[in-house]
Fold each of these.
Amino acid sequence: MTIEASSTVDRPSSEVWKLLVDPSAWPRWNPVYLELSQTSAGPIQVGARFHSKHPQNRTLDETIVSFEPNRKFAFEFTSGPIRGSREIYILEELPASGGKTSTRLTRQFEVRFGGIFKMLGPLLITPSFKREKRVEVDTVKRLLEQSASPSSLA
């Protein structure tokens, strides 16, 4: 099952990218992340591993499986009931209109359930869960468009 949400952000893709790949910024725009920390050494790239903390004391591990600067990145959950699920972020820079460059941000969540959740999983994908994904892209838009510069978000 894939859940998708998109928004047009009135910023160049490089600014959107900078916010998306900053683990310390995730809790600011993604309410299901209380914390995200890199657990592997080296730069953020394919193979980089992360550990995340979520409400109700849930923790998950994730690995980046696609990384194309200013265009796309994806990570796969490697633990928990959604192991094998993927979060995909696609950035498409749009032609300048009125001197401003915009970016179409698309977020896809490819949900895969394992164990007992395999049967119960589809029941867990509620309208509020789908709305939550929409809120995430809208929050990225709001944060970037309201800030004077991307460095002020750090």
Note: The chain has one domain: 2-145.
Amino acid sequence: MQITYERVHELFQYHNGQLMWTETRGSRAIKGDIAGYVAPDGYSRIKTDKNLYLTHRLIWLYKKGYFPENDIDHINRNPNDNRIENLREVSRQCNLRNCGNSKNNSSGVTGVYLSKRDYFWVAHICINYKDYHLGRSKDFCEAVLLRLAAEQCLGWGDCNHNTPARNYAIENCLFKPPIDPK
């Protein structure tokens, strides 16, 4: 059985991205202590009422009033930063897009690599497990802009404002983001 809004408020108190026990429930759950543990994958987990929960999902329930049906994304990509302002409910696809570069990435930009055969920068993008070639260039910045243009054409900017291509383009004055009207 899934934990309820009432139960999460009974068990925990929220403070700055952490859940603290409201009462002592055993030697590992002492009133006022931070609940849970950080697993090797970097995500915090809490075991209560014989169930194991990801802390960020419990925080979502605590603050928003419902258990999320979709993924909860950590906007800044830090899996242990569970402040509510760093969390958003998104589709699985959107959550997978908000990831940094893989450990094998040598260019610093997802979807851009140097072809060792002819020393051209190649831009590509993967959509629904299919890889699409976007273009090649001797100029790294041009390849980054090809990748960024593809992300924008696909509407990925609505999902992730933090892609490596976008960040590189902004940092190197290749792209000026629109001003947020907030």
Note: The CA atoms of residues 74 and 87 lie 5 Å apart.
Amino acid sequence: MVDPAQREAILARALAYPYATPERSYLYREGTAAELPEDLDLSGRTPLLSYGANAAPEALALKLASSPGVPLPVVRSQLEDFDVVYSAHVSPYGAVPATLLESLGTVAPVFVTYPTEEQRALLAASELNYDLVQIGGMPAFRSKHGPLSIDGSPVALAAVRSRNRTLPELDEPAVLEHVRSHLAPELALERFVHDCVERGGIKPLPELHQISAPAGG
């Protein structure tokens, strides 16, 4: 049985998605973001377009835990004519995660990581709800389930500050609340997220609708 502290930790991890990323290129090593060396050696590494949690030191620390001490170059970049939107699934750790969607004129802030073969395999093992596809001439993980739709529209991540965004946006707590109210209105959010984790996530999610505000004061 999961104790209250564990439940709080599970909820906190879900609500914090997509986690904090530096505003600059950096060298990831064991949960920290160091300055990227000017004489960086990328031999034996292949580029991988990254967005959402795969560019965040906090998430990388979990995904690459079995390969400690091996650095990972993370280079800040941008992706034209795409936006970062919510995927139509709940992840095994209880968050509604991100995917990429074509959006003419939008410029999304992304990163390019340069994993070793071992790091690349570890990242791929954490992305079972994603296909590895070519986007902008570079491999990237893209959701198998497509974008989450609310009232007929994909919804962008408010935490990702894309330029010239045309889509509506929500933060993670709001989109999780939409999912909960649609699928399990009888549950508190903490219980809903914990149940999602116990189930290994939910896939795919149906189209959602806006939550009506309660009447009266």
Note: The chain has one domain: 4-199.
